[in-house]
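help with this.
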Amino acid sequence: MRVAVTGAAGRLGQVLIPALAAAEGIQAVTAIDRRPVVAAARTTPLQSDLADLGAEHLAGHDSLIHLAFQLMGGQGGRRRRDRDWVRAQNVELSRHVFQAAAAAGVRQIVFLSSAAVYGPWPDSPRPLTERSPARPRFPYAEDKVATEQALLAVAAQYPAVTTCILRPPAVVGPHAHPLLRQVARSRAYPAGAEVPVQILWEEDAADAVARAVARQAEGIFNLGAEPVWSLRRMALHGRRWGIPVPQGMIRALHPLAWRLTRHAGDPGWVQGLDGALQMDCSRAREHLGWTPRVSTSECLERLRR
């Protein structure tokens, strides 16, 4: 099996590429990114902008894994605050890649979406299933929903193409966004943050992607570590005390931090502090044979070492 991966130099891509290269049944991996990709066994780097990626680059591949996405400011510099530019990078370039893959005869397209498509909202179902409606609450989630729709639209034009959509929560680990690592290590937490949320260790996320390819899986799959805790419990795990911060203060100060540094993350994320994000991941267990190896408590302990 030959597999192509976009966003190969990204945070999860750096974990996924070695996992794919070592996986049984995968003969070759094409690692695509506009930034340089470190070569690995059975891996061929392809340095290219997605806009320049054509069917000729994807011909002969069995699966395409689409990771490339502007996340929490990404590499856009000042343009990260230009909503039209970010949406074009996320949605329109993704549509272009899906179209190129389908035209090249790629049999399966795997898209790493996000649990953010569900909200989170105070009235979100507990747990959320893959049949729960998408209710994006901020721009990043809106783009994930639109990209899912773009993938399904392309697949409707090419019936031979199988689509697989994975919806993980915040992916944490050594390669995670600096903001996520800071939050996990901090004693501060949003006051009143008692609603359930999920996280996922990066190697477990990569394992789910690899399994989806190996099984040529089709459909939507929720992913998440267990057990499901509140932000307050996460902050207090293994500690005697924490620092509750009023949510109003966080919402007021975060836009300023966003203007000063891309490491602060998209302001939309703080809008979901009062929302629940608890998913039913049984479908991934049943159809992918996937179970997260790293629990919520171990995720936090590893990040704090």
Summary: Residues 183 and 189 are 8 Å apart (CA to CA). The chain has ten helices and 13 strands.
